[in-house]
Structure formats: structure tokens, C-alpha cells
Predict the 3D structure of the following.
Amino acid sequence: MPDGWTLGLWLAANLAFAATGQLAALAPGSLVAASPAGVELAARHHSSVRLSAHAGWWGPVDRPLRAMTWNVHSAPLSRLEETVRQVQPDILALQEVSATPGELQRFAASLGMRAFMLVTVGRRKPFGIALLSRLPVHQVEYRWLPSGREPRAVLLAGSSQLLIVNTHLEPSPRRARQLQALGQLLAGLQRPTVLLGDFNEEDAGRHF
């Protein structure tokens, strides 16, 4: 079952493909995107990707939105489908995702969602944090956190009305510095924000 779920709206990013349609070498910091309509060509190694204007924006809705966050520990995306379908989230935040663009695309298409992923570690398969949404996306950004051998990052996306943040903090002494950096980032945001992720919190939690 999921590690936890919450209410809110969501976030995104973009994917790198070679002109031939083959997967390009994805280095840490690559932004990857997939959707039922296909995979979009995007520039890599940029901290901000603006999607086309027709992607729209998140505005008021006539019902509560359901968001779900889940550290999947590199499990095949196909194994998640039944649980996600039962929960029926509007927004799905995933951590420790290990998937090719094709796998990400098929998973998103099966759920009728768009999927986005930030590659944090260069492996045989892209590895990092990802989000899926039934909602349109306007802009995506990422920021690195203080990290050890495995880079940790924050992925942000949204509109002028709402910002969604996804992250995965490290279960080590560096976590305190990551929390501080995350708190400073959140404090500088000038709009309503929803924070999702795996925080590796062992006690009752803390306030930023």
C-alpha cells in the first residue's frame, strides 16, 4: 500500500529523446515527460522547462482533488497500477522510480494521466522522482538539495494560482541540511503550495 496520501494539486517535468526516437543518455538533472499522446522532445540540463501555452493552468475546481504519494523502491510500474486505480488520485507523486520512458508512457496511458520524471541518478534505467496528473501543467522547475553520493532534489510545478512540490529526503545526518534548504525554498514561494514526498521522518515531524 502507499506510504501515505494527502489532498491537493500536482506537478510535472519533461523527457529527453534523440531525434531518431531512441532514448538519449540521461544524466542526473534530465527532465523527462511522457503522456498518452506521446513523448515530447525537450532540452536537457535546464532547471526550468516551460510547456506550450495550450497546456493551460490550474484554476478553481468544483470538487476536492485527491493526491497520493508513494515511495515505490524501484518496483516495476506495472505492479503499481492496480493500487493506483483503486485510489483514483488526480495527482500521484512517486519516489525511487526506476523506469524507461517507454515504461513511464505506458503506465501513464493506462491510467489516463500525464507523467513527468526528474532523473537524479544515472543508471541503466533512469532513476529519480516522478509525478502523474490528470491536470494540465504550465511550468516545471527543479532544485538540488545538499546531497551525498545519491543526489536529492526538489521538483516544482504549477501555475500562478498553485504550486506543487515533490521531494525525497535522505535518511542520514544530511537530512537536517536538506530540511533547512527545503524550508528556505518554501519560504520564498509567493503562492499557495502543496508539498508531497518521502521525508524519512522518524518522529512526530517538524515545522519548517
